[in-house]
Amino acid sequence: MNMISILWRKEVTDAARDKRSLLAAMSYAFFGPMLMAVAFFFLISQLTDPADVKISINGKQHAPELVDHLNRQGVIERDQPWSASETPITLTIPALWDDKLATAEPITLTLQADWSAQKQQTDIRRVEQAVQSYAAQISHYRLLLRGIDPRVAEPINLSKQDLATRGSKAALIMGSVLVFILLSVFWSGMNVAIDISAGERERNSLEFLLSQPVSTQAIVWGKTLAAATFALLGAALALVVIPVIFAYVPLQDIGMSVDFSLSMLLLMFLLLIPLALLATVLQLFVSFRAKNFKEAQTYISFLLVIPMAASFGVEFARLKTPILYYLPLTGQHQAFLSMIRGESVNWVGAGISAAATAILAYIFVRLIARMLRSEKTVFGL
Hints:
Layout: H1 2-17, H2 19-47, E1 53-58, H3 64-72, E2 75-77, E3 90-92, H4 97-102, E4 110-112, H5 121-145, H6 166-188, H7 190-202, H8 205-210, H9 216-246, H10 262-289, H11 293-303, H12 305-317, H13 330-341, H14 347-371, H15 375-378
Parallel strand pairs: 1-2, 1-3
Antiparallel strand pairs: 3-4
Helix pairs in contact: 1-9, 2-6, 2-9, 6-9, 6-12, 6-13, 7-9, 7-10, 7-11, 9-10, 9-14, 10-11, 10-13, 10-14, 13-14
């Protein structure tokens, strides 16, 4: 343990001297959540924008009652021409409006817009809802004029009672933010892991270190703990930055709220410790298998696809398999989601997931130690 401590201090000191690489490693944990917060801020602002929707209305003289209804719903006629950078939203009212309305025939309104334009999705939806509400009024009037109760056309009235809490609603969008916390342990320690493995081999310092009276397993543990230290620094930075940044995101405007308590953040950090060990030891394993520094960077970039696919795949595919609570990476992700929702955490699953992660990290440490006894690995042959 004394030798591991000495090796850990040596590797941490050497890595801390490279300030530029250290800042680059920590930048992901800072800018990743910030970019997500900015995206959510603009999305919520767009969804809750109270401004009127301005569209072009052709044939408004044929249906003045419809135009008045649209105005009351916040859909007004545009008084300025569309610019070249804007996609027009045009509602066309046919000239036979009165005739078809009198004979109770279906009336076809034409709404022209670009449904692929993300910025106009909310505006288009508001226009559709305004037209549909007016169509529902006409249907009721037609039934009343014929002596029929409009409720006859509505045999079932579904009453929706939303039992979701503000925290569970927030988990719908915060799940993608939690992925950044999990991936921070992979990104923050990546540069250090490559430098103390493939980098030392290129500088011919690895051969000198292995010639000392120290076991290869102690060397691997020292390097693993050093890289894991920077991985946990990145995770701690992400855990500190996310509550501060999202305090300025108006989640309450869409009925959501997230309470990042100190106890929650500490529990998240504890669950990330075994994951940081596994992330760094995997990066060391890949780096030692590579021939040189650049090759190690290439291989680790492919390695990062695995946690990204696991995290985003579980999040967007909405997988509900119970085994996810007991696996490495997905177990931590499920525990974080339960904390955000305000639900009880499956501590048995979280404990098994943490233990499985630590055991897997230990197995890779033994594999790397065995690899370093081979000249093929030491000299990159």
